[in-house]
């Protein structure tokens, strides 16, 4: 199996300013051409677009805008998990020998209707993500005695990290009190516990081992991949466990031949504050019930190991771009390019992404 | 590179009867389970959905409906060329060793708005496919002295073949006169020159060489793959050439190590009657300007080599299902399962699919 490297990456400014989906896709693509040495349009074998947008034929459209005439071009959608699905697809084109260079580009508009799963009788009237977010929160509180203050630390930490991320949608500082006093949306969730849908785009250039060095002196290798879909509807036995994430993590650790304690830096999908706690536990980065303590310590010691760019809560959540922005951040961290956000001596990085109450998850392990 | 086989296939009845997209996807999937020996839900590593529908998360949804919990699940869209893109993606997951069994399932609803490309200033007011269809027709008439009667033979032949296809949407017989007297839509195209958007679904089960024999005694191998995107907009130098198709064909012939004269049976994308002529020429199945003569002879001699199931004009065109229905037909032909439609001694089959005025194309070569 041919090894696959991240040879280039870019993330545009996340914002609430309206921009057409084509422009968002083109902006991230243009940055890849500006950031990556020796890259030429004719080198690109495949263009994969990650989005939940309802516009069709976006991969040929962004190809034409950028002057690329690829062999393979199509859109990939799996709600919030689209970007990481597109990366795994790009990985397979390269590792099978069908392509040497794959451009994966993702984008979303804040008001895109595809952000809420409208199929699923099990969710009843409660289709908006905030309802599964609040059910997860109730369950975590009950099982692990998690407090509102514990949750507030997740939000405050992510917002603090986002201040050093020049492309985050929000660079305001929020204290624990600010979070706890923010508007209550449900019994258990306040507005600052939630990630914010926004406009944004991100792109990742994947290259085979054969050609990666042409485009970068510091390739970052995708060494572990795990994916799992457990269902589409919100039918769970244990509301304190994200089964698809723990399954995907086992696969990824096994493929990369690492244990969770070896991870130096991780981007995880904090759709709601409770998700960050559950994910840290299900990735076995910490023990069950210990994540709140870990987050509190990270806040107090300024430890940026988890979500250095500010996660979804701090930097914003343009669905189709999120997975790619996570990968861009880890690639940046592992090559020492994260300036104020830099985690020292980061050698092994992890990405965890998921959709729709973690009914599906992707976990990637990357190494310098 | 691991070899990849079609180990199962199904196509549901194409019709104009409304059916929810989830039901269409589930119907084709259910048929795969009914038609394929030893197949079990737990064997399926990936579920790829091909559709232009605007509903999200359809791959996890159809997985849940069918009791599958795959590793990989997402939707793939590239307009009419979606199904064949999804097959090439499934091929790459298997040939890279990341999966052994991939279910690809496609469906469309007749009134889905995603059937018309609404980006593209070069098309001006003429965004509906019929306008590029008519421009192609004018150019072919001018260059090759193609007549309205030549075009009518394409439609009559496809409708004749569709009569032996139990899942075609239309089983009426049309004479040359019927076609020529059908309603004129543009200067050059009549209603019976056009393929018909409809409801329908189709599924293909791909399996690695390692496991294919568990599911079928007669695997059909995907031996040649070619894909090309030249643009998204209707910007062409020569309106009598489908550049993406000829480029994809060269790649596929070279990978499969065949010449076009070795093809025994082919499914090609006759969106409009003129497309069938252009494709036969660009695939080099016949010489430039000779396709009309070939079609006329096929009609007179009852030769079913081209579009034995009736093509898009005869059997209907549910966008996301079309590429998979083409592959199902070729798999059926190469295993001698096409009853009245059977082409004798068919050993090598070809699929040509394309999107949006052939701005992108896929060509596959399959062998028993």
UniProtKB/TrEMBL annotation, chains A, B:
Residues 229-366 form the Thiolase C-terminal domain. InterPro entries: Thiolase, Thiolase-like, Thiolase_C_2, Thiolase_N. It holds the Pfam family Thiolase_C_1. Coiled coil: none annotated. GO terms for biological process: isoprenoid biosynthetic process. Keywords: Isoprene biosynthesis. Residues 15-110 form the Thiolase N-terminal domain. One of its GO terms (molecular function) is acyltransferase activity, transferring groups other than amino-acyl groups. It comes from the Archaea. PANTHER family: ACETYL-COA C-ACETYLTRANSFERASE, ACETYL-COA C-ACYLTRANSFERASE. This is 3-ketoacyl-CoA thiolase. It comes from Candidatus Nitrosotenuis cloacae.
């Amino acid at each position: 199996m041919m090894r696959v490297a991240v040879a280039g990456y870019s993330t545009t400014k996340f914002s609430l300013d309206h921009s057409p989906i084509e422009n968002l896709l083109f902006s991230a693509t243009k940055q890849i051409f500006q950031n990556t040495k020796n890259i030429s349009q004719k080198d690109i074998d495949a263009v994969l677009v990650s989005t939940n947008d309802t516009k069709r034929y976006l991969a040929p459209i962004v190809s034409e805008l950028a002057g690329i005439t690829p062999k393979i071009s199509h859109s990939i959608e799996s709600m919030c998990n689209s970007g990481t699905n597109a990366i795994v697809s790009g990985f397979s084109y390269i590792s099978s020998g069908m392509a040497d260079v794959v451009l994966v580009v993702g984008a979303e508009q804040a008001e895109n209707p595809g952000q809420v799963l409208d199929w699923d009788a099990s969710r009843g009237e409660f289709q908006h993500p905030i309802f599964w977010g609040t059910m997860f929160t109730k369950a975590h509180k009950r099982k692990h005695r998690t407090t509102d203050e514990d949750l507030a630390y997740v939000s405050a930490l992510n917002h603090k990290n986002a201040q050093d991320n020049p492309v985050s949608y929000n660079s305001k500082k929020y204290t624990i009190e600010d979070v706890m006093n923010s508007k209550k949306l449900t019994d258990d969730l306040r507005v600052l516990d939630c990630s914010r849908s926004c406009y944004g785009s991100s792109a990742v250039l994947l290259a085979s081992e054969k050609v990666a060095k042409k485009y970068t002196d510091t390739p970052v290798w995708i060494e572990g991949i795990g994916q799992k879909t457990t269902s589409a509807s919100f039918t769970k036995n244990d509301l304190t466990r994200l089964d698809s994430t723990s399954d995907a993590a086992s696969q990824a650790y096994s493929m990369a031949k690492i244990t969770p304690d070896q991870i130096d830096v991780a981007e995880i999908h904090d759709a709601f504050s409770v998700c960050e706690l559950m994910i840290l536990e299900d990735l076995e980065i910490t023990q069950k019930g210990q994540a709140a303590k870990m987050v509190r310590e990270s806040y107090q010691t300024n430890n940026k190991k988890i979500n250095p760019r500010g996660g979804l809560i701090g930097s914003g959540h343009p669905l189709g771009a999120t997975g790619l922005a996570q990968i861009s951040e880890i690639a940046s961290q592992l090559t020492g390019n994260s300036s104020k956000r830099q985690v020292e001596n980061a050698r092994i990085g992890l990405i965890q992404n998921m959709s729709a109450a973690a009914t599906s998850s992707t976990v990637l392990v990357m190494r310098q």
